[in-house]
Design a protein that fits this description.
The structure holds two protein chains of two kinds.
Chain A (H helix, E strand, L loop, with lengths): L1 H7 L1 H11 L17 H9 L6 H63 L7 H15 L4 H22 L9 H36 L3 H7 L13 H8 L3
Chain B lengths: L1 H40 L2 H33 L2 E3 L6 H14 L5 E5 L6 E5 L5 E6 H6 L2 H16 L2 H27 L11 H45 L2 H13 L21 H5 L11 H19 L2
Parallel strand pairs in B: 2-4
Antiparallel strand pairs in B: 1-2, 3-4
Helix pairs in contact in B: 1-2, 1-6, 1-7, 2-6, 3-5, 5-7, 5-8, 6-7, 7-10, 8-10
Classes of the chains: A mainly alpha, B alpha+beta.
Chain lengths: 242, 315
């Protein structure tokens, strides 16, 4: 099978043409004298005869080109899919922040209800949280949203600070559970932001680095922005101590 | 940013190594089975028989472990699944770490034992479980618990849990086949030898005995060295999740300072835990046969991260 397949190639046809002439071109039929240069023997055995060389070489070239093109296409597909995967991870991480923020809205009324009686003297702190929550839940621009979320975190921080003034609360299990749930909610929000930033970091590095940057430009993969902590989150904790 | 890429590369390497390990394992089982079959029956037909038998044992035990190994380990450790109401702090901490790692929430288990320790198992992050002892919950504060859970979550995210299971299969199956052969040889193996086998069979018997003695040893060494590397890596990944090396460092300090032996752990599950649960062993071993790197060294590395190296891991 191999031989007949070979005979249909350019080299094979050329060899047949050659064999119509006087001297057989290849194999054991060729009689080499001691003076025949080695290069000629090699060429003849391999079937790359002078007039077949053009066809043979071009076929090899075409094969090499096809292999290179196929490899490039495979690489492009892998890179593209990698970029898509990372971009989806970034978007998923962004949605996760929202999930955690919504969860905080849902948790706050229940939690406050449970500890209301301990804070009779500190109504102001509780209303601060309730107001910050309802403000954060209103539709607004992303910048404003981040600010009101930060204000809500600040209000919750104030409540913890105030609770420090009541030594009897420190051993109260209801209060401890409340603090655990609320601070865990805060942690979940900040960890979801941290994860978002981690994903953005990986994605941006990928989008910027060579050679992926070529495909990223070609298919319109934009760099994403990091989530930056807003100012008020830190301010308001200190503001309302007095 | 830098850290993110390297961590992803490490995960990719881990998955690649898992495939390599499976390939090497199958190749080894094939050769092992062939040699034992030849030594046993004395002709190439017997060799093929041995090969097929060994492959069947390897594949069946491999699949059984892959899909049911986590349940077996958890049951052997007498772990009990919990909900948020049973242990709110633990559950919250696990949830926080799964959010930080961007992984699905694993199942949470408690082992009723006063020795502080923890482990993770499962075949992938979608089917993962994290188990901690009740002693760990009592003795650690929230930051320390967070460090330990982050360490376990890193084992989940790095696919160490799958790798540990595969290595467990490798060790188990190798020991099984070796025992099978050596015992058979002991109890009147000579009767089945064919006359035609002669010289070739004799050589195969010698090779088979050598393999049967050495293979389990090498498999175990591989298991140990691999799990040591992974502990360092999981510590580093944990810091990337909590951004707080101090928590894990002081947790490790407390765990290593505790002299209680975890009764639910045995040699088959020891390598899964965050710190070696079989203490007698840990104390006199820093080298070849230890499942865990020395805790002092791990604390040292974490302390240096705390001092300023954290910028490298924090994206």
């Amino acid at each position: 099978v191999l031989q007949s397949a070979w005979a249909t190639t350019a080299g094979g046809r050329a060899a047949e043409r050659y064999s119509d002439r006087k001297s057989p071109p290849y194999g054991s039929r060729v009689q080499y004298s001691a003076e025949t240069p080695w290069i000629e023997r090699t060429y003849n055995r391999a079937g790359f005869l002078p007039d077949a060389e053009v066809f043979g070489v071009s076929i090899v070239l075409i094969i090499i080109l096809v292999v290179i093109v196929v490899a490039l296409i495979i690489y492009a597909i892998a890179t593209y899919n990698g970029l898509v995967r990372r971009r989806n991870e970034v978007e998923e991480a962004y949605r996760q922040i929202d999930v955690q923020l919504k969860r905080r809205y849902d948790l706050i009324p229940n939690l406050l209800e449970g500890v209301k009686k301990y804070f009779r003297q500190e109504q102001e702190v509780l209303t601060q949280i309730t107001q910050a929550r309802s403000r954060a839940m209103q539709p607004q621009s992303p910048g404003e949203q981040a600010q009101s979320e930060a204000r809500l975190s600040g209000a919750i921080g104030n409540l913890f600070a105030v609770a420090e003034n009541y030594p009897e609360l420190r051993s109260n299990t209801v209060m401890l559970d409340f603090q655990e749930e609320l601070s865990s909610t805060e942690n979940k929000i900040s960890f979801s932001r941290q994860h978002y930033n981690d994903s953005v970091g990986e994605y941006n590095t990928r989008v910027q680095s060579f050679p992926a940057v070529i495909f990223a430009r070609m298919f319109g993969f934009q760099q994403r922005e990091y989530f930056e902590a807003q100012g008020p989150e830190r301010e308001s904790v200190t503001v309302s101590y007095d | 940013m830098e850290g993110g890429t390297t961590f992803r590369e490490r995960i990719a390497r881990n998955r690649r190594n898992s495939l390599l390990l499976i390939a090497a394992f199958l190749l080894f089982v094939t050769v092992f089975g062939y040699v034992i079959g030849y030594a046993w029956i004395g002709d190439p037909v017997g060799a093929v028989f041995g090969l097929v038998l060994a492959l069947v044992i390897g594949v069946v035990s491999g699949l059984a472990t892959y899909y049911g190994g986590d349940r077996m380990v958890l049951a052997a450790s007498r772990a009990r699944e919990i909900t948020h109401e049973d242990a709110p702090v633990l559950f919250n901490v696990v949830e926080e770490m799964s959010i930080a790692a961007g992984l699905p929430m694993p199942k949470v288990y408690i082992i009723e034992d006063t020795a502080p320790n923890a482990f993770a198992t499962g075949r992938d992050p979608e089917h993962a479980s994290i188990a901690v002892t009740s002693g760990l919950l009592q003795k650690l504060d929230r930051d320390e618990l967070q460090g330990v859970v982050a360490h376990e979550m890193s084992h989940v995210g790095n696919y160490d849990i799958r790798y540990a299971m595969l290595v467990g299969v490798l060790v188990g199956t190798t020991v099984l086949i070796s025992d099978f052969f050596l015992r058979g040889l002991w109890f009147g193996g000579g009767g089945r030898r064919s006359e035609g086998g002669g010289y070739a069979q004799l050589i195969m018997i010698v090779v088979a005995i050598l393999l049967a003695i050495l293979a389990p040893l090498f498999a175990r060494l591989l298991q140990l060295s691999i799990s040591r590397q992974r502990e360092y890596l999981a510590d580093a990944s944990a810091v990337r999740l909590t951004r707080n090396p101090g928590g894990l460092a002081s947790a490790l300090r407390k765990i290593s300072g505790d002299d209680e032996v975890l009764e639910a752990a045995n040699r088959a599950t020891a390598h899964l835990y965050i710190a070696n649960p079989i203490k007698r062993f840990e104390k006199r071993s820093k080298g070849l046969f230890s499942t865990h790197p020395p805790i002092e060294e791990r604390i040292e590395i974490l302390r240096s991260m705390e001092a300023g190296g954290i910028a490298e891991t924090a994206g």
